[in-house]
Amino acid sequence: MGLTPIQHKLLLRRKIVDRLFVALGAALAVFCLSVLAMMIAALIRDGSSRFGWSFLTQFPSSDPEIAGVRSAFVGTILVMIVTAATAIPLGVMAGIYLEEYARKNWFTAVIEINIANLAGVPSIIWGLMALGLLVQYLNTGRSVLTAGLTLGLLVLPIVIVATREAIRAIPQAIREASYACGATRLQTVRYHIVPYAMPGVLTGCIIAMSRAIGETAPLVTIGALTYVAYLPPPPLSERPWLLGTVSGLTFSEEVRTTPFAALPPAFAVGATRAGEIEFDVRLEAAGPSQRTVVNVEDSATLTPAGLAEAVDAVQGVLARFDDDGHLRFESELDEWFLISRDTTGIVEGLGMERGGGRHGFLDWVNSGFTVVPIQMYDWVSRPEGQGFKANAAAAGILLVTMTLAMNASAIYLRNRLRRSIRW
Amino acid sequence: MPTGLDANNSERRDPGAGGPPSGGRGGPSLRRGTSRWGERAIEFLLMLAAASSVLITIGIVAVLIKESMAFFREASVREFLTGPSWAPAFEPPAFGIRSLVSGTLVTTAVALLVAIPVGTIVSVWLSEYAKPRVRETVKPALELLSAIPTVVFGYFALLFVTPALQWLFARVGIELPGFNMLSAGLVMGVMIVPYIASLSEDAMRSVPAALREGALAMGATKFQTAVKVVFPAALSGITAAYILGISRALGETMIVAIAAGQEAKFTFDPTEQAQTITAFIVQISGGDLPHESTGYRSIFAAGLTLMLMTLAFNVGGFLLRRRYKETY
Known about the structure:
Number of helices of chain B: 15
Strand order of the largest sheet of chain A: 4-3-2-6-7
Largest sheet of chain B: 2 strands, antiparallel
CATH topology of the largest domain in chain A: MetI-like fold
Number of helices of chain A: 13
Distance between the termini of chain A: 50 Å
Strand content of chain A: 5-15%
Distance between the termini of chain B: 38 Å
CATH topology of the largest domain in chain B: MetI-like fold
Shape of chain B: globular
CATH superfamily of the largest domain in chain A: MetI-like
Helix content of chain B: over 70%
Shape of chain A: flat
Low-confidence stretches of chain B: 1-33
Oligomer: heterodimer
């Protein structure tokens, strides 16, 4: 086979192009993976000094050195529980219906097209839906429940698709064998389809949860708090909450109807103890929580003016009202008052009642919350020089660890599955 | 391996062992009515679960349209479409959506300029060149990249990529602002690469081997086969991957909210800072505008705009796909 020199040259050129392309493809893949590595390295570089046990167990604070993700971490876990409780049953049931029951008609076609399209809806749109439908219409508030439902519906298509794929992989012969033994359709699904599909479904659920755990935008949209210095009440725990109605005070309408706004710092809730005003405030507040003790020489001198001064001294302690016009706060101190620059000063009692008793099993779903990605967003968007970037990076380490661990376990599960199942 | 097989067998035997009892329970089930009724009820329940996804869609559309209509009762549609600036929190407010649309389009364009070439090349490499072992390692690793929460990408864009770009731009005498669309777009592009690479690779791998073998038998190099045979044959699936990439870029929120800036500005210069539709929604809903204000309601009109933009790209993609669809 003789080739002319020109043919040789052309052939050589094509082979070089081939080689160059291999190098380019491999280089770009390595580039993408190195971005992943750089990202993790950047987080570790900036955040490892802050990351540690105390970071996980501390509440957020205005002092970056001691600010932690305790409330955010607990919030993430609680929101994930609600998300899983929404997405997994609904998604698995929908997947079973579409694979095992649905007839081929327009209704099924609509559902299928719809699920495919839902997966492409931007996540922030889900947040708007939740804000309009859940928060404003169904009045679920800016709660763990709202967040969990929102994320549950958001990842629903992922669970449905995973369930369908897992069921589709089961050979028809299994169904026929079951029917041949006289099983009904439900028995076939219950004893054969669901158990065999389980590992695949589980993998899909883990992927869905890992997607939900990092989701930030829809939760900002429904009005998740960026600053939470309390934990939702555990089931059946004692109820230390005090409910104070604000009817005794005259607030301007603007203040009352501004649920997303932090109230001006002239509001504070405090408790008295002999000789001092102790602002022991752990509120659904948007500002830094502080336990600030303002010493007053003699409690008799607690005039409204003196208190207003004291309030000015406690800049940043903010109170908020929930939608019913209640102030919610928690303290081991008994006597409470609420002071405000706008009003006459002390209003004792406030029609407050000790809640007493115990929390219900599910009271925590109605609690306000924050989650790790929102805490990270809050820290990363603070002005440079406050020292919160390290906290953001540390929160990032936590987030990346959680999502990577979940994905790695899903990949492991998938590979094991592929090896162990032979139909 | 044997243990794995054992576990598998016992797992398989289990439902079988449950078979006879269920057959036993089949006795009562012969009595018509009761058991059949239960089957029907379960089927109905399952159907409701499947139908819930349709309800969700209706919910999304209804909320967007209802709240947008409430917004347009207070702001003019004409201003919304043609107004020069977007400043809902100002007095008087300005509602010209094009300032947000420009930011969205610029960051999306920058992201796609990274994601489409890189994603396509990586997918061709993975499907046509890489050995199975390499592919089975690299593909899941790339998918891990897309599993990273976007707020972390935002952190990376603002505190790693932007300073690096500022240093680079300073060498050619351009001062890059701390917030800019370029950095956000580039990072977003890298985030989208795995989606495009993974889906395109699936599409190319499902091209029948006979087509490849035919090309190779004619003396084509692998590169020629990939570019002239496999790529066109998989174009329908690859278009779907691009459309998904565009949808993700349009709707991406946290990266642009953190790194691209918070000031709406009508500009097509990626080195400037500007606000996207998504970043605006985040800013307002996390901010302190009263719920009853027109400014607050504008997030729904902005959301509707975003939804329509995404829809337009998806419909366009659907038509393109139908045109390129090849069946074997």
